[in-house]
Amino acid sequence: QMHRLLLFLCLLPTLTVALIGFTQSSAVKGVLMCNDKPAKNVKVKLYDDDTGPDLDDLMDSGKTDSDGHFSLSGHVDEFTTIDPKINIYHDCDDWLPCQRRISIHIPSKYVTKGKTADKIYDAGTIQLAGKFSGETRDCLNVFAV
């Protein structure tokens, strides 16, 4: 009986990883501009991009500062290597309802095992006034934090 309990306790970490995956993290920074001016107060969210019926996992969110700078980092538990991406929600050069949404995928070499990212992906300076392939509209994030 005691041997079974000890065996179970030894295998518990392995079983936990099998049930919920392992912790992985990613980090990103960048600067957003609108017509050569800092895009301030623009919402940016860091997700683990999941396919299928599983919803994307929100890892972090924030807004650009007065100079258009943003920096996000977060972690999530997954079975396979995470697919981090950022979504940018903005109204640059846009007068239609809802917001323009741009997604940028972060290369897998910027994924770290554990809760703290070892490397930060620099998305660079992004001019939001342009049109982006795969751009969509989002009406929900206008009201969300």
UniProtKB/TrEMBL annotation:
InterPro entries assigned to the protein according to its UniProt record, in alphabetical order: Transthyretin-like, Transthyretin-like_sf
CC terms in the record's Gene Ontology section: cell surface; extracellular region
Signal peptide: 1-18
Location in or out of the cell: Secreted
Domain of life of the source: Eukaryota
Presence of keyword Secreted: yes
Entries under Pfam families matching the protein: TTR-52
Keywords, sorted A to Z: Secreted, Signal
Principal location: secreted
Keyword Coiled coil: no
Assigned protein family: Belongs to the nematode transthyretin-like family.
Protein name: Transthyretin-like protein 5
Organism: Pristionchus fissidentatus
Lineage: Eukaryota, Metazoa, Ecdysozoa, Nematoda, Chromadorea
